[in-house]
Amino acid sequence: MFKPVDNTKRLAYGVHNRVRNKYEMVKKNYPLIIDNELVPFLMTRDNIFISNLEDLQGLDKRFKQYKLYHSIINRIANIVIIPGILVSIIYILKIFGNFSYVALLENILPDNILNTIFWFSTLGIILLWYGNYREFFKPRRIPKLQVLTDYEVEQIKNNEVKFGRYATTSTSQYISANTLNFLNTTLDDYKLNPLKMLKDLLKEDDVKIILKRANLVQLQKFVDDKNITGKNMPSYPIESIKSLMIYAVEEALLTSSVHIEPVHIFLSLIKVFPALNKFLESNNSSLWILREALMYEEGLTNRVTKSIFDPDQSYNRTGGIGREWVYGYTYILSHFSHDLNLEVANAHDTYGIGHEDEVNELISIIGRVGKRNALLIGDPGVGKSSMIKGLAQRINTGDVPPQLIDKRIIRLDLNGLIAYSGKSKNVETVVQRAIEELSKAGNTILYIDELQELIPAKAEESGHSLAGLLLPYIVDSKFPIVGTTNYASYKKYFYTNESFRQSFTNIELGELSPKETMEILRTKIETLEDNFGIYITIPALTDAIEFAQRYVQDRMLPDSAVDLLESGCAWVQSNNVKILTGEHIAKVTSLQTNIDVASISSDDINDLGNLVERIKARVVGEDEAVEAIVETLKRAKTGLRSPDKPIGVFLFIGPTGVGKTYLAKIVAEEFFKSKEDIVRIDMSEYKDEGSVSKLLGSSNDKNETSISLIDKVKVNPYTIVLFDEFEKANPEVLDLFLQLFDEGRLTSTSGETVSFNNTIIVCTSNIGSDIIMEEVSKKNFLWDDVKNKVLMKLKQSIKAELFNRFDSVVIFEPQTIDSLAQVSNMILEELSSRLDDQGIELKWSDVIPMLIANKAYDPALGARPIKRYVQEKVEGKIATDIVNGEIKKGDTVNIKESWII
Amino acid sequence: MNNSDIFESSKVEGLNTQVFLIDTLKDFLKWWYIKIPVQLILRLRRILTIIDDSFSISQLILTFFVPWHRDYSFVGYFIGIMARIIILIPGLITFILTFIIYLLIIIAWLLIPIVCITLTVISPFNV
User: Fold this and answer.
1) Cβ–Cβ gap B127/A110 under 8 Å
2) Chain A partners of B49 at a C-beta cutoff of 8 Å?
3) Which pLDDT belongs to residue A742?
4) Model confidence pLDDT, tens digit, residues A831-863
5) Cβ contacts (< 8 Å) between B32 and chain A: which residues?
């Protein structure tokens, strides 16, 4: 499961014994401390949060008094207002009517008294106003989380903490009025009853909202069904509340909340009680999902107002009515360009998240006097276009140096340029005039997406490339030009072109981290929900990131994850589902990549339990080999293997026909649940020198249609790679295997790295087959002796470092007559099922498979002749009979011994 | 509050009424005379920004003598200046009026408590 950076390990818990004045760090997970002498505390880089009962008691008392006083003040204010209202009515009556009782009133209450009452009651209005707008109970804001440094963590481990340098505060200062009210209703009899607390928390709106967002609404039912009882959530003395508050403040810190709210107590209950944690695990969720949900919901409430008049909202300047007046016209250019500033001003997205440093660098480059062209280099999907839009957004808000204020970013549309010049003039003239316009306009930044596309684009008449036409202007730099490209194209086109390379300053963009991608996805939720009319849960986001990282190899984060999320939304909408969850993302990923994501990502280890039996049922006589493989696969599925290596690397040894390739196919079917998941490479084709490039060549080669090993694994990383007769390959190729087996990756000739971490690699070899055949033909041979001899020969034939990199070397036993009979039986069963489809039933006696095995047995060829024999003798006969009309639909055919002999 | 003694709060010291009243008064003054006026000024600044942006006031003033779409002919200069004058007049009027009205609101806000108290006190003697 995807996790953002885990900060919990960078915070430390401890207890202070205030009688003996001793500190001790808590290493056990989340205990509830009930000893009154012990004060639990939480350490961050700058702060120590302590929690004791006295502070909570004092807080509670003061809170109640505050409440009381304010209700008194409110009542007084209300009382004061009433005479004021009456006086106002009298004033109005005086103006509009001439009633007799008004005159009477005047005698009793002279004007000056009325005025005094009126003005006095306005003071009451002011007081009421103040009371309504001002929170009477003001807890302190929790400081921003600063995690402990490595050094401090080390110090804490060695019990060498210098407590003096931390600011110590009591958690009670951060508790909100809401939480105090909640605690007052949920605690009784000086006891902490976690079960009651949980039930009360589930009634809180905040908790309900985050459970919905985290797709965990079933918790309510789980609790209602009495899955959680006093046994797994027993009562504790009231003192335990101080520990709970410490855990709550940790949650508030981790979710960047400003106060301790009931929802943080909810999260800390999950931490403390394993029963709740197990519920999360069984629902394929985690505390992190809930924290993310909380952070998202808090972010939403913080920006409920969307009015541009709200000073807290950012304001995008549009330039107004006179925006264009001072700048030159760009008539021609506007036919094949877009104004990015306008596009961004009308969008509600935030661009450039995660690339803030690069945007600043870009601003400093294009703000220069000379050489102000920038080239953004990054793999597809890292957010190059989004970064430019981020710049446009900053120009709109005015958050740029003076020389960039009111600049327009114009995106050149190359296809539009070619189309436009095609119908009127030649490209040279159009480009020249557009450039003239640009330099005259005086406020533009030219942005060319995928700059490398300029180079092959040619002007029809003169045959000059567009890049060549533009080069003088690029070098001249009368206006800044920003281009984007990827590494492969940079290497291919720009690295070799000196003048091009010199006129741009490069900015490299790396792939965003999952945490930054999460931030981006969170900003998309609102727009996507509005657009598709659905509800998006946090697991959908985390799964989109995880699957994008694992299964989408040709694009990077964040684009790959955003794409999966949007496809998920579309899928959910078209299937009339209202809520988008992780399962839908898995479904969409499977559809897009043809990888059965659900079965691969399922952590169903029980499924592996009977894998041995399932494979054994289909592979005859090679139990030892099967067990060795399944053992390795189990290690992989349970997460015990190193993640930077292939799932398994096997060497299968044995004479032809023992079932080496067959076993690999069966493993592919059983493990990856797909028959097609096998990449087979005959290594005898890689004997020559130069075979390395043949193996590593990618689609960038001259021979663009050939698909190399790298391409195949790139398309489907969940596969078995089978190297047949691997010892026949050129030694250079074998050296390549060292890297492949060890690091689980290969780099193609064009510099592209492909991961083999999710593949199973199987090499087959005939080395030692002669020994096996020779030894087995002897009477009373010992299989262990044979194996040792073969291994000896193997070690002489291949390098020791290669040999040692195999997870297991499996030597296949030659088939005996008995096992061949089983094989024949399986082949006949397969034939029978094919005939079944045509309505013909096939029957045979027990003697038949044995007979076939005896007849077809050839020690040198193993099981292979069996199939041919069955084809010849049984299939051939039946086919002839069907043609001659002797066998019809609905008939039962008995295989006769005479057919075989 | 149904369970007033949840935390056994009788054991701890509570709130002093006098301190509470002084704190409340201080907080009221801070709220009325600092917080709200600052908010009003920020709001005014935002409104003026929006007016400035919609009428392009500052931009038009800064570029008053730049010809219409960089057409450096007499006509270009003439049209440029005329167009700016036409937009600038209503723009500046809106800008200044908004500024004055808002300023009056802020001043009125600051005066309300003083006026109320003063009139409450002097009204009985004002026969």
Assistant:
1) yes
2) 315, 317
3) 83
4) 888 888 888 888 888 888 888 878 777 766 777
5) 126, 130
Q: Between the CA of residue A48 and those of A31, A167, A261, A413, what are the distances in Å?
A: 18, 6, 19, 57
Burial of A533 (C-beta count, 10 Å sphere; 0-12/13-18/19+): exposed
Residues 6+ apart with CB under 8 A from A548: A517, A555, A557, A560, A561, A563, A564
pLDDT of residue A702: 47
Contact at CB, B123 and A187, closer than 8 angstroms: no
B2 touches A at CB < 8 Å: yes
Question: Chain B 55-94, CB below 8 Å of chain A: which residues?
Answer: 55-56, 59-60, 63, 66, 68-70, 80, 83-84, 87
Distance between B111 CA and the closest CA of chain A, angstroms: 12
Alpha-carbon A63 to chain mean position: 44
pTM, full prediction: 0.74
Burial class (CB in 10 A: 0-12, 13-18, 19+), B12: middle
- Percentage, residues of chain A above pLDDT 90: 18
- Cα–Cα distances in angstroms (integers) from residue A144 to residues A14, A249, A253, in the given order: 20, 12, 7
Does A61 lie at the interface with B, CB-CB under 8 angstroms? yes
The C-alpha atoms of residue A707 and residue A704 are separated, in whole angstroms, by 8
A508 secondary structure, DSSP code? E
Chains A and B form CB pairs within 8 A to the count of: 159
Check A319 against B59: CB less than 8 A apart. Answer: yes
| Min Cα separation B14/chain A (Å) | 5
CA–CA min distance A644, chain B (Å): 54
* Cβ of residue A322 closer than 8 Å to a chain B Cβ: yes
Confidence grade of residue A325 (pLDDT, cut at 50, 70, 90): confident
DSSP code string of A424-457? SS-HHHHHHHHHHHHHHH-SEEEEESSGGGGTT-
Helix axes A817-837, A847-856, angle to 10 degrees: 120
Residue B4 has pLDDT above 50, yes or no: no
Report chain B residues whose CB lies below 8 A from the CB of A69.
Answer: 15, 17, 20, 24
Mean pLDDT lowest among A18-32, A190-204, A538-552: A18-32
Residues A60-94 have pLDDT tens digits of 888 888 888 888 988 999 999 999 998 888 888 87
Residue A32, token pair as written in the block: 């509830």
When the pLDDT of each residue in chain A is averaged and rounded to a whole number, the result is 83
Distance CA A244, CA A33 (A): 9
A678-682: strand order across its sheet: A678-682, A720-724, A760-765, A648-653, A808-811
The first and second tokens of residue A245, run together, are 């508050």
Q: Do A321 and B87 touch (CB under 8 A)?
A: yes
Quick check: bond before A646 cis, omega within 30? Answer: no
- Position with higher pLDDT, A131 vs A673: A131
Alpha carbon of A440: minimum distance to chain B alpha carbons (Å): 8
Mean pLDDT of A603-629: 73
What's residue A302's pLDDT? 67
At A86, the amino acid letter reads L
CA-based nearest residue in chain A for residue B41: A311
Q: Identify which of B6, B15, B56 has the shortest CB distance to residue A184.
A: B6
Q: What is the pLDDT of residues A689-707, one digit of tens each?
A: 777 777 776 444 444 445 6
A279-283, A382-386, A689-693, A699-703, range with the lowest pLDDT:
A699-703
Residue found under tokens 């557009």: A434
Q: Mean pLDDT over residues A155-181, rounded?
A: 86
CA-based nearest residue in chain B for residue A237: B7
What ipTM was estimated for this complex?
A: 0.79
Cα separation, A886 vs A870, in Å, equals 20
Does any CB of chain A come closer than 8 Å to the CB of residue B6?
A: yes
